[in-house]
């Protein structure tokens, strides 16, 4: 029994150890993302503080600090670091802001937002991912509030939000999410077909007026749900 506990503790400490090597690789990744055009120093600093290898299965640890999306189980992916930085930069998060993320996935993007000082609420619709990520974030001592359900419906009980970030590709902008934005609030969401989406930033100027800005193309896993893509049977 004692030996068994020791084994569990050893495997947990391996998973959560952030060595100098990891830190060095992470700094190189931050430089790479900077060269690709991310200029917000607060975003780069947050990226430099979150150990991405904590969010990946052991077999991918060596690749954690390459600028690539990676499988996280249940057919889903952790976004490419450049994409995380791009969305975070567009979101313009300030200290203490209430931020809603749709698509918790591994929890990595949520941690980057928390590192920026945000109070993060995140929704995931895959039950297994929701459970493992919630445990991971608790284990890491994070305060992020993770919810299970269809994120296209937002979190009415906690609305309105200063910022909303959608980390899955949407066919169109879910109206329910727009309604949960504060006046003056922003939403960053990839919108398009299943093969490619344009990053959009929506500003809620007044109760009935929105401003739309369009940025580069990306490729995300689909946003499924009532105001997303219909699930294929
Ligand atoms: N932000 C994540 C990456 C997410 S991948 C990270 O940092 O790792 C997109 C995630 O969105 C997947 O986990 C997928 O299950 C989830 N998703 C898709 N549609 C959703 C919906 N309607 N509500 C909540 N989550 C959704």
Overview of the structural elements:
The structure is a single chain. With 233 residues, this protein is α/β, with parallel strands linked by helices. The chain has a domain at 69-218: Vaccinia Virus protein VP39 (Rossmann fold), CATH 3.40.50.150. Helices cover 33% and strands 24% of the residues. The strands form 2 sheets. A 7-stranded mixed sheet has the order 5-4-3-6-7-8-9. A two-stranded antiparallel sheet has the order 1-2. Helix 2 (20-35) packs antiparallel against helix 3. S-adenosyl-L-homocysteine binds at residues 76-79, 102-103, 105-106, 108-109, 123-126, 129, 150-152, 167-168, 221, 223-225, 228.
Topology, element by element:
Layout: H1 2-15, H2 20-35, H3 41-49, E1 70-73, E2 76-78, H4 81-91, E3 98-102, H5 108-115, E4 119-124, H6 127-139, E5 145-148, E6 161-166, H7 175-179, E7 181-192, E8 197-204, E9 210-218
Parallel strand pairs: 3-4, 3-6, 4-5, 6-7
Antiparallel strand pairs: 1-2, 7-8, 8-9
Helix pairs in contact: 2-3
